[in-house]
Amino acid sequence: MPQIFAAMTVAGSDSGGGAGIQADLKTFSALGVYGASALTAVTAQNTRAVTEVELLRPALVAAQIAAVLDDIRIHAIKIGMLGSADIVTAVTEALAGYSGPVVLDPVMIAKSGDALLAAPAIEALRDRLLPRAEVLTPNLPEAARLLGAQPATTLAEAEAQGRALLALGPGAVVMKGGHAEGSTCTDLVVTKAATFRIETPRIATANTHGTGCSLSAAIAAEMAKGAPLRAAVERAQAWLHEAIRAADDLRIGGGHGPVHHFHEVWR
Questions:
Q1: E-strand spans in the chain?
Q2: Domain that holds residue 94
Q3: Strand 184-191 versus strand 195-201 pairing type
Q4: What are the residues whose beta carbons fall under 8 Å from the beta carbon of 20, sequence distance 6 or more?
């Protein structure tokens, strides 16, 4: 019997199913990894807007993490929306005994433009969780907010911000290029040893809801299966590229629709 790999996502929900916990679990499943979860918040949202957010008690978030880790061998953890400084602290403390890779996606703003992380929590995220992450996956606006800077407009600026984030403690930084301009989307993977690029043709579609969540979850899934950093990021990006390419086939909602997580399965 083949070995079963498992990953856990710690994130908020998306009632529309395109991002957050729902996207992470779909990603894990699509990539052949068993998914467990710890919910941090319940959101009322669809492809057009986030209409309400309710954070869970930090103790309940920590209890979910403890329950999973006490019973299931988790090979990698992805962290997404946390929402408050208290939840950041609770998650950090709950992971104190966990030695596997952690992929941190610093979710701050939804695709609709709605804020998902309170300002006081950004400092806690930067100080408490960044040093715990093996991989940090900010988009350009998120990287800028973590650094108190303006968003990078060139690859050189993006690499410089990636190096500044690397100095805060994560093992590697994936500077996502989805918010940049141009016909090519370039992600920069910044490590202490080197920086390498992953370039893909930019796809003309409005259906990109959940891309950030799905990429970080895909990296976590590949690392759960034992892939080293570069291979994990390259495989995750290749899978996401095809999920975006197939997104228009879903035709879900009237706003920014979700990517097609099961493009390799649904025929």
A1: 6-11, 34-39, 41-45, 50-55, 76-79, 102-104, 135-136, 172-175, 184-191, 195-201
A2: 6-249
A3: antiparallel
A4: 11, 12, 13, 14, 43, 80, 81, 210, 213
| CATH number for the domain that contains residue 28 | 3.40.1190.20
Question: How does pLDDT run across 105-161, given as a tens digit for each residue?
Answer: 998 875 555 566 777 788 899 999 999 999 999 999 999 999 999 999 999 999 999
> What are the residue numbers of the active site?
176, 208, 210-213
- What's the total number of domains in the chain? 1
Closest CA to 61 of 101, 97, 130, 11: 11
Query: How many other β-carbons are positioned within 10 Å of the β-carbon of residue 199?
Result: 11
Residue 52 is assigned to a structural domain of this protein: yes
What is the Cα–Cα distance from 184 to 177, expressed in whole angstroms?
9
First to last CA, the chain: 27
Secondary structure of residue 73 in the 3-state scheme: coil
Interatomic CA distance for residues 162 and 156, integer angstroms: 10
